[in-house]
Amino acid sequence: MPLTRKAYRAAILHSIADPAEVGIEASYEYFEDGLLVVENGRIGALGHASELLPGLPAGVQVEHYPDALITPGFIDTHIHLPQTGMVGAYGEQLLDWLNTYTFPCESQFADPDHANEVADIFIKELLRNGTTTALVFGSVHPQSVNAFFAAAEKLDLRMIAGKVMMDRNAPDYLTDTAESGYQESKALIERWHGKGRLHYAVTPRFAPTSTPEQLTLAGQLLTEYPDLYMQTHISENLQEIQWVKELFPERKGYLDVYDHYQLLGERSVFAHGVHLCDDECARLAETGSAVAFCPTSNFFLGSGLFNLPMAEKHKLNVGLGTDVGGGTSFSLLQTLNEAYKVMQLQGARLSPFKSLYLATLGGARALRLEDKIGTLHPGTDADFLVLDYHATPLLSYRLKQANSIAETLFVLMTLGDDRTVLQTFAAGQQVHQR
Question: Taking the C-alpha atoms of 185, 191, 193 and 199 in order, what is their torsion angle to the nearest 10 degrees?
Answer without folding.
Answer: -80
